[in-house]
Amino acid sequence: MGARLGLGLAALGRPGYLNVGHGAELGEDRSVDALRARTFEVLDFAYAAGVRDFDVARSYGRGEEFLGEWLRAHNPSGVHVSSKWGYVYTAGWQVDHDPPEVKHHDLATFQRQLNESRENLGEWLGLYQIHSATPESGVLADDALLSAMQETDLPLGVSVSGVSQAETIDAALATGLFDAVQATWNLHERAAEDALARAAARGLEVIVKEGLANGRLADRDDVALAAALAQPWATVVLSGAASVDVLRSNLRAREASPPDDLDALVEDSEAYWSRRAALAWN
């Protein structure tokens, strides 16, 4: 069985995000009530279309809150819910607040955010991930923190980002603690794929994020996501759609063929991440 298409809520739970065209996709009304209604609409459509994997994070504004409310209202069967801890949302519902989120990979933040995630998601929380682990954060070398994560009895994951994705994945594998890894892979940035193959070979679930390179590949979304779905190590490929129309287009990837030449659009990894860092929240 091949990879599944899932839905990430990074662009739905807050009024600003760094996806190209995010502001146009959301439209004028970005109030809490408007984004709650939009999130429910997108979740309804996704579930009706067979999507069963939903990914969120503490730093996605009210993303966990919205998803939890939808789950309790519908009690859907067969869903897989993952969330992440380690970033604190600081934008205060502003679009371009600087910074919009701040990384905190310490024990106190983990304990607080775990309680918040459980309050929002309850029994639906099926995978809890470190949000954007890097060698610099030291999170994978913090024995007290890793022990506290193990004591939750939740399946554990680690998400990675930046030029050190492969290094961080291998460090996570060395701990033997994780059930899943989430990483950026797309037609522009493929540096992590060998490490992701190693993770899959060890039995970890592999979740692909940013398959459309934060909107840079939106004009070819079906083949770009199809390329990710075709990777033999992939378990779930996330759509970051913030509207039904965009999700409908993304879902075509399930029937599309990946491009013949996967190397045609590859960028230097450092250049890719520098360009991503320069994207404006909108």
TrEMBL record:
<dbReference type="InterPro" id="IPR023210">
    <property type="entry name" value="NADP_OxRdtase_dom"/>
</dbReference>
<dbReference type="Pfam" id="PF00248">
    <property type="entry name" value="Aldo_ket_red"/>
</dbReference>
<dbReference type="InterPro" id="IPR053135">
    <property type="entry name" value="AKR2_Oxidoreductase"/>
</dbReference>
<dbReference type="InterPro" id="IPR036812">
    <property type="entry name" value="NAD(P)_OxRdtase_dom_sf"/>
</dbReference>
<protein>
    <submittedName>
        <fullName>Aldo/keto reductase</fullName>
    </submittedName>
</protein>
<feature type="domain" description="NADP-dependent oxidoreductase">
    <location>
        <begin position="37"/>
        <end position="221"/>
    </location>
</feature>
